[in-house]
Design goal:
The protein has 2 helices and 6 strands; from the N terminus they run ββαββαββ. With 165 residues, it is α+β, with helices and mostly antiparallel strands. It has a single domain, classed as GSPII I/J protein-like (Pantoate--beta-alanine Ligase, Chain: A,domain 2, 2-Layer Sandwich), CATH 3.30.1300. The strands form 2 sheets. The protein has a 4-stranded antiparallel beta sheet, covered by helices on one side. The protein has a two-stranded antiparallel sheet with strand order 1-2.
Length: 165
């Protein structure tokens, strides 16, 4: 900051007044610093908004996967191969893939109460009750307005009881 003295004379007395102000260089440096802070804040807010949108899509995809799992539980059907379908849910289109998983140790997926009730009963032909349980993997990917599929954002593995074909 620069200071200058300017003197004034009046009829009976002379006095000097100190004038203060910023030079052009000082103003330009202050504006450059302010601009850098604004750019950094803008980038941070953009990253934050992308992160919030990503979390929103993942949460909605998880809801879609859980809805599909509930449908499979309430309406048991035989799932013998991978099935892919488009679903409209949560206000957008999703590509849902349902695939059976082959796992000899199904009891790791079953809850303790399910395991206990299954161990107490056997099929009419003496077969293992776990033969009707199938682990199923549900994968959900969002679709844009043009029908392009993005990477899957939700994977859910559930065990469902299936009716024999």
């Amino acid at each position: 900051m620069s200071c200058q003295y300017r003197c004034y004379t009046q009829a009976k007395s002379a006095y000097c007044r100190r004038e203060q102000g910023f030079t052009l260089i000082e103003v330009m440096v202050a504006l450059a610093i302010l601009a850098m802070v604004a750019v950094v804040a803008s980038k941070a807010s953009g990253t934050y908004l992308r992160s919030v949108n990503n979390l929103k899509v993942r949460t909605l995809a998880q809801f879609v996967a859980q809805n599909i799992a509930t449908d499979l539980t309430l309406n048991p059907t035989a799932i013998t191969r991978e099935q892919t379908r488009q679903v409209e849910s949560q206000g957008r289109a999703w590509l849902v893939t349902v695939a059976p998983q082959i796992d000899p140790n199904l009891s790791q997926y079953a809850s303790p109460s399910m395991t206990q009730s299954m161990s107490q009963s056997t099929g009419s032909n003496g077969s293992s009750p776990f033969a009707t349980l199938t682990p199923v993997q549900i994968t959900v990917a969002p679709m844009d307005e043009a029908g392009q599929v993005a990477n899957s954002v939700a994977d859910l593995t559930v065990v469902v009881r299936q009716h024999a074909e």
